[in-house]
Write a structure and sequence with these properties.
Layout (H helix, E strand, L loop, with lengths): L6 E4 L6 H10 L3 E4 L4 E4 L4 H8 L6 E4 L2 H13 L11 E4 L2 H8 L14 H8 L8 E7 L5 H8 L3 E11 L4 H10 L7 E4 L2 H11 L1 H4 L8 E4 L2 H9 L6 E2 L5 H10 L2
Parallel strand pairs: 1-2, 1-8, 4-5, 4-6, 6-7, 8-9, 9-10
Antiparallel strand pairs: 3-7
Amino acid sequence: MDLHGKRIIVSRAKEQAGSLSSLLEEKGAEVLEIPFIEIRPAQSYEALDKAIENLLAYDWLILTSVNGVTALFSRLEKQGKSEADLLHLKIAAIGPATRKAIEKHGLPVDLMPEEYVAESVVEEFQDQQIRGERVLLVRAKVARDVIPNALREMGARVHVMEAYETVVPESSRTAIIEALSDPNKKPFAITFTSSSTVKNFVELLGEDRIQSSILDGVKLCSIGPVTSNTLKQNKLRVDVEAKEYTIPGLVEAIAKSK
């Protein structure tokens, strides 16, 4: 099914919007990129750098996003280290995009869950001998603690390292309000690719507008159950949810929703 003439808001961070925008445009959609997230470097890399200095002390490395992969390898390079310094580690990734980013550096991924959410990572670790293992988890400043809490309960020693942070891009506030307020330009759909995109959308639009009729007729499209749950927690509908929790899966779900 194509999306010819359908205006769709892509809310991913500016640097990451391209893949989603391209796939939607291939189906004929008119894409409007309004980022609900801005990716910024961590305020301090002191803890992560210290962990990199002591990589031999770890047994596992868990990476939950492409942003985390990018930040980790950037810090490795700054410390004069390379991919070879990670070869002794077993590596876990959430999702095919993160896996691909790791494999581009010539490293194998030992564990990737069938469903690309933290709970599925935990399930996969049930089959691993994790007790007593030292785990380095590289992620965003603000994230759910499902993985570290569960692995600690299994007896692992988990060190959580901040690699980047996400903030609300203030420049998007006027753009999203204008896009939703003009009946002649109202979008067919808005994409949400993480819980952060949902929370920041609410902040950008404001509670009063969220509860008004401004979203009537606009499909709210979620990449998966965690993002859908955040939409519901913020009293927003879930009109579309991807069956496969990936960017292509989200595009397919939107196309089928017509």
